[in-house]
C-alpha cells in the first residue's frame, strides 16, 4: 500500500468509526470490506460519499431508536438504506400489500400505486392485492419488474365501519385461499394515502407496527384512544400500554400477520355478538394484541404521516402521507 492509499484507508476507517459510534447500524465488516467487493480502499470511501444520505452520517440524538423491549424504533438517520436493502435483497422476499378500495375509495388507487412504484420497496418483488367491489375502476398502472396487481372481488357495504372491519375477514379468507402460496411478508395499508419518500427494507420484520402520528410524543398512556369499555374484547385497562399504533400501515411475516388479522376478525365478531363495536374498530383490536405480543420492529410516524398536519422537526422525512378527504362525501354512510 502506498502512502496515498494508507491515508485514504485511514480516512475511511475513521468515517466508519464515527458512523458506528454514533449508534447506527453496527454490522462492522458487512459491506465494503472484502477484496472481492472492493479491491481498493478509495472505492469504499467513494461508495459511501456517493450513496450515503447526509443524515445517516450525522446520526441522531433527538429521538429514541429502541423500544424498552429492545426492538428497533426506526427513524430516518438510524439506518443505512443501501446496506439494509442489500441485506434483505439477498433473501429476495415476496411482499404482499393488501389494499381495500370499496365504493368511492377506488379514486385513491391511482396515486397510491403510482407513488408506491416510485418509493415502496423498489427493486423488491411486490404484489398489490386490491380488494374491491368495482373491478372496472382499478386503473392500469405501469409496474416495475417483479411487481404485480391481483384483484380480489368483495361485496359492497352500506357502513364504512363494515368495510374497515371487513378487511380482517377478507384478508384471512384470501390468505387461506391464495396469498399464503405467493408471499413471505404481508402489509395491510389504507388506500387513502400517497408515498413521498423511500419506504424500504428497514420496515421489514416479523411484526412491524407504526406509531400513530397523533399520540407519539406528548401523550401519556392513559390518554391513548384505546378501547376503555371492559365489555369489549379490545379493552385495555388504565395504566397499561406502550404506544398507540395506527391500523393504516402494519406488516410482518405472512404467518404472523395472518394470526393477527384473524385475531382482529374473531375479536370483532365476539364484540358484535355482544352488541358492541370497538371505538376504533380493528385499530383497537390491533392495539390490544400488540400490547401483549410486542412488535419486533416499531416504525416512526414517518411511515404514516398526514396531510392534515404540519411536520414537526423530528419528522425529517414523510414516507407516506394520508390524504385530506371529505369523509361525508366519500364514505357510504358519511361521517367520521
Ligand atoms: C390513519 C389511520 O389511523 N387510519 C385508520 C382510521 O382511518 P381513516 O379515517 O383513515 O379511515 P378510512 O376512511 O381511510 O378507512 C380505512 C380504509 O378502509 C377502506 N375503505 C373504507 C371505507 C370505504 O367506504 N371504503 C374503503 O375501501 C380504505 O382502504 C380506507 O383507506 O380508522 C379506521 C377505523 O376507524 C382504520 O383503523 C384506519 O386504518
Ligand atoms: Mn385512511
Tell me about this structure.
By secondary structure, the chain is of the alpha/beta class. The chain folds into 2 domains: 3-88, no CATH class; 91-330, Spore Coat Polysaccharide Biosynthesis Protein SpsA, Chain A. The chain has helices at 3-21, 41-51, 54-58, 81-89, 109-119, 160-177, 254-273, 281-292, 327-330, and strands at 73-74, 94-101, 125-132, 147-153, 185-189, 193-195, 207-211, 245-253, 297-299, 305-306, 320-322. The strands form 2 sheets. An 8-stranded mixed beta sheet has the order 1-9-7-8-5-2-3-4. It starts with a helix and ends in a 6-residue tail after the last helix. Bound molecules: uridine-diphosphate-N-acetylgalactosamine and manganese (II) ion. UDP-N-acetyl-alpha-D-galactosamine binds at residues 100-102, 105, 190-192. InterPro entries: Glyco_trans_6 (IPR005076), Nucleotide-diphossugar_trans (IPR029044). Its main location: membrane. Mn(2+) binds at residues 190, 192. One of its GO terms (molecular function) is hexosyltransferase activity.
